[in-house]
């Protein structure tokens, strides 16, 4: 595994822990989605378990431990994650972990537990997990990874040392994405960086899947609803087939940008600088207080995504409200 270019400081910090024999019993690694937190945690786990790490702290890749790690059969590396995407980490999973931790590590180095996403532990699981933090077992290191540290209980976060992984500068991100996929050149790089909030893996996913093209098509429908050229219910039917979290983020970004345009903010400060002309046009055609009401509705919808909310009805409510905001003379 190689170091990601924007994580060199983070890696140096982790190496200091190891070199000073001060490896935390529990370390919370947090930051935005798509910046390689799991990659960094796996590097650190491999380094702690490797028999002959390199000078830069990375695992050698050749010792017996590294061979087991590559085969994902190392007995002293435990990964705890939801059984299914979008589901919670359950109390049953945590109890199984606690049982495993009562046994000694099978080798003489550390035993590593990686929990990702840690914020998906439900309340019962989080309460049970406190036992791991309050009664640490021999040579065990807990690595908790999350995009949403605020959703972890204070009793857990207060018992962890913390490592913030930040997004890279725009130039570093674009250079890295270019190395992975030269199709980057076909994208608006300003919009790509802003919409992915500087997250390299998310930006690469956008490039690989032509996501900016999809965003452009969705914004065109959004604009056409304002112009009374498309019906909100028909658009809602199409949008429910798309990733709802991504759609709600885009809608949120459009609303925020319209508000910014109302206050004549520079285009460079928009989420969608490539859509400036249309956003500025929309900002002149609606009442700002009503727009804030739509913004509140979208935020509420985002909070309800992990519930049994009807996605079709959710988009209908948002788009009908959006249609009502716009005057007939657009």
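Sequence proposed for the structure above (330 residues):
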């Amino acid at each position: 595994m190689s170091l990601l270019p924007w994580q060199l400081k983070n890696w140096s910090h982790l190496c200091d822990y190891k070199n000073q024999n001060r490896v935390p019993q529990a370390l919370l690694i947090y930051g935005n989605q798509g910046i390689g937190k799991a990659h960094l945690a796996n590097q650190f786990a491999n380094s702690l378990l490797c028999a002959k790490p390199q000078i830069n702290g990375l695992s050698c890749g050749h010792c017996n431990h590294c061979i087991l790690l590559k085969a994902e059969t190392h007995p002293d590396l435990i990964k705890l994650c939801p059984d299914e995407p979008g589901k919670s980490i359950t109390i049953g999973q945590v109890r199984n972990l606690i049982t495993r931790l009562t046994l000694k590590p099978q080798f003489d180095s550390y035993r590593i537990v990686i929990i990702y996403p840690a914020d998906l532990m439900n309340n019962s699981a989080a309460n049970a997990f406190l036992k791991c933090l309050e009664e640490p077992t021999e040579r065990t290191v807990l690595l908790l990874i999350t995009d949403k540290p605020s959703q972890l209980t204070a009793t857990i976060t207060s018992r962890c040392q913390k490592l913030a992984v930040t997004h890279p500068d725009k130039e570093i991100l674009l250079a890295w994405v270019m190395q992975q996929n030269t199709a980057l050149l076909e994208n608006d790089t300003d919009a790509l960086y802003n919409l992915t909030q500087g997250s390299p893996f998310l930006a690469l996913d956008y490039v690989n899947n032509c996501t900016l093209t999809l965003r452009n098509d969705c914004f065109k429908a959004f604009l056409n609803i304002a112009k009374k050229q498309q019906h909100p219910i028909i658009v809602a039917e199409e949008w429910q087939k798309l990733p709802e979290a991504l759609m709600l983020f885009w809608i949120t970004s459009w609303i925020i940008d319209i508000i910014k345009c109302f206050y004549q903010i520079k285009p460079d400060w928009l989420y969608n600088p490539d859509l400036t002309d249309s956003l500025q046009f929309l900002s002149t055609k609606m009442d700002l207080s009503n727009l804030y009401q739509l913004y509140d509705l979208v935020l509420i919808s985002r909070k309800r995504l992990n519930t049994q909310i009807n996605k079709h009805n959710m988009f209908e409510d948002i788009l009908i409200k959006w249609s009502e905001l716009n005057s007939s003379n657009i």
